[in-house]
Design goal:
Blueprint lengths: L1 E5 L3 H12 L3 E5 L2 H10 L1 E4 L7 E4 L5 E3 L2 H5 L6 E4 L6 H8 L9 E3 L6 H9 L4 E6 L2 E6 L2 E6 L3 E4 L5 H10 L4 E4 L2 H13 L3 H6 L3 H6 L1 H20 L12 H9 L8 H9 L5 H7 L11 H10 L5 H14 L12 H14 L1
Parallel strand pairs: 1-2, 1-6, 2-5, 3-10, 6-7, 7-8, 11-12
Antiparallel strand pairs: 3-4, 8-11, 9-10
Helix pairs in contact: 4-5, 7-10, 10-14, 14-15, 15-16
Length: 350
């Protein structure tokens, strides 16, 4: 099969490289500096966790372009895979729009619940498929990635080729799963993306430290309950994701207060001591953040469905201000009580 990847970051390189190792034709669309490195040295995939060792993909085994028209020239493609940050989606969708008629089906793996809507406005309703990845992959630099948690990935079963893609991805060791309700799958993934993500960036604390703090743990559980209320308002059901018991997490978040601490081992196992993506982006000095598409999405849908979401609103507002330089990163660093006091004020005002 022939695949076009939007993005050769950690997820794009891992999936694209795994498919290339199976003999499939892979083309990456990336920024010029990353393309230069990919063309010079290829891909290095540390798949030791999955039992495959470190695999090298030679530059001659794939194509890498920085221009969409040049990338499309390597087609026609069976499937395009969108693996960009959510804040890159609007610009990417506009770039695709002139080529909509010749575009292949597009599987969107980006975090958040609004990317597919943006992409469908450019490509048409039928061409965009909801997708998600639960395997954890890190990238040290362009083309060098390591599989850290081997869970799997999923996508909506609605497309006629969904089963065929599942077979191909399974042969590449990617552990794919099909879902009857793509929207429910995306919202279930959003629940996992919320946990100790924005708060870790705001406080400059590890997820493990956040879960160990009783007050912060209560805040984390409350942002989950708000998101679950928004999910229910849309008549969606929580679904388990590959290697991720989301339904158990949702049950514990809504359980009586004496039961909620039982979720701590589950959360600590999932997040551990590694800093999450929102913290990494903030402390790398990036002026964009996916918090707008995570906690911010809960806020927007909460307003649409008249569901109060003060906890998500606070986390989104504080981190957004830090990203834009309106609030110093040090404002709440290692000050849990200060954040909890702001949380109490937010709940009163909402």
């Amino acid at each position: 099969m022939r695949f076009l990847f939007f993005g050769a970051g950690a997820i794009g390189s891992y999936i694209g490289g795994s498919l290339s190792l199976q003999g499939h034709s892979v083309t990456f669309l990336e920024r010029p500096e990353a393309v230069a490195k990919l063309r010079a040295r290829g891909l290095s995939l540390d798949l030791s966790l999955a039992g495959y060792g470190v695999r090298q993909v030679a530059p001659s085994a794939f194509q890498a372009e920085s221009d969409l028209e040049q990338a499309l020239a390597h087609g026609p493609f069976d499937l395009a895979i969108f693996a960009l940050k959510s804040f890159d989606t609007p610009a990417a969708a506009e770039a695709m729009r002139p080529w909509a008629e010749q575009f292949p089906p597009l599987l969107c793996l980006s975090n958040g619940v609004e990317n597919e809507t943006i992409l469908r406005q450019a490509l048409g309703e039928a061409k965009v498929i909801e997708g998600t990845v639960t395997s954890a992959v890190s990238r040290t630099e362009a083309g060098i990635v390591r599989l850290e948690k081997w869970r799997g990935m999923g996508w909506a079963a609605s497309h006629p080729q969904a089963v065929r893609w599942q077979q191909v991805f399974a042969q590449a060791g990617l552990r794919p799963r099909l879902y009857a309700d793509g929207k429910a799958m995306k919202w279930s993934k959003l629940l996992t993306n919320l946990l100790a993500n924005a708060s870790s960036a705001i406080l400059d604390m590890t997820p493990g430290a956040i879960f160990a703090h009783p007050g912060l743990y209560a805040l984390e559980m409350e942002q989950l309950r708000e998101a679950l209320a928004v999910l229910r308002a849309q008549h969606l059901q929580v679904v388990d994701l590959p290697g991720t018991p989301v339904r158990l997490l949702a049950f514990l978040a809504q359980a009586p207060s004496w039961l909620r601490p039982l979720a701590r081992p589950l959360l600590a196992k999932g997040r551990g001591q590694k800093m999450p993506s929102l913290h990494i982006d903030l402390y790398a000095g990036r002026r964009q953040s996916e918090v707008h598409f995570l906690n911010g999405a809960v806020v927007r849908f909460g307003e649409q469905y008249h569901v109060p979401v003060p906890t998500n609103r606070l986390l989104n507002d504080l981190l957004s201000r830090m990203v834009q330089g309106e609030l110093p990163r040090e404002a709440f660093a290692h000050q849990p009580q200060k954040l909890l006091e702001a949380w109490a004020r937010q709940r009163q005002s909402d």
